[in-house]
TrEMBL record:
Superkingdom classification of source: Bacteria
Identification of the protein by name: Helix-turn-helix
InterPro entries for the chain: Cro/C1-type_HTH (IPR001387), Lambda_DNA-bd_dom_sf (IPR010982)
GO molecular function: DNA binding
Pfam hit, one: HTH_3
Domain HTH cro/C1-type span(s) in chain numbering: 8-63
Positions of transmembrane segments: none
UniProt xrefs under SMART domains: HTH_XRE (SM00530)
Length: 195
């Protein structure tokens, strides 16, 4: 299958939805669904693709597989370089309504743990949107480079403004060291759900 339209139709029929029901879930008209499925509208914004995947109860990667608009997630390895540093991948725009409570500007990148890699806060098959940033913007999950090892840590500010790092399931703070730096803020997280 080489177009997105037939994939949408196939997944809609698998989900046992008519065009009107899918349109309500995505927040568009049923005519728009028809245009997408027929290929009359070939460009679909990322926010609509995410809404389609949610409405069809499938991973975004399945919706996009074998299409000309394929948005393959980047693999995150535990050692640099950062997944987006090769310059071949363009960032994505996430609509602010998909990530309530987040403050960031600039590109995000879709990232998933590379096969065999283990990261705190991420399971195999998880998909995250990471905004490259070396600046602490607000408490939350960050991708950090800790002396040449990439890790996901919960980051807060201490009482005197210093950054404090936490591992998953731990309230014990890890001290900041000059070898540790922020490299990205996790602004959205999708967990793989069995169908």
């Amino acid at each position: 299958m080489d177009t997105l339209g037939p994939r949408i139709k196939e997944l809609r029929l698998e989900a046992k939805l008519n065009k009107a029901a899918l349109a309500r879930r995505v927040g568009v008209s049923d005519v728009t669904i028809s245009y997408w499925e027929s290929g009359a509208i070939r460009q679909i914004g990322h926010e609509r693709l995410v809404a389609l995947a949610q409405a069809l109860n499938c991973p975004l990667s399945r919706l996009l597989e074998e299409t000309g608009t394929r948005a393959t997630p980047l693999f995150l390895h535990s050692h640099p370089p950062l997944p987006w540093q090769d310059g071949r991948q363009k960032g994505i725009d996430l609509p602010i309504e998909l990530v309530p409570g987040q403050r960031w500007d600039g590109d995000c990148h879709l990232v998933t743990p590379a096969p065999g890699e283990q990261f705190d806060f991420l399971a195999e098959g998880d998909l995250v949107a990471i905004a490259p940033s070396e600046i602490f913007r607000q408490p939350g999950l960050y991708l950090i480079d800790d002396d040449g090892i990439l890790a996901i840590r919960r980051v807060n500010q201490g009482p005197t403004g210093e950054l404090v790092f936490y591992r998953k399931n731990s309230d014990e703070a890890m001290p900041w060291s000059p070898a540790c730096r922020l490299v990205g803020k996790l602004v959205a997280h999708w967990r793989l759900q069995p169908l």
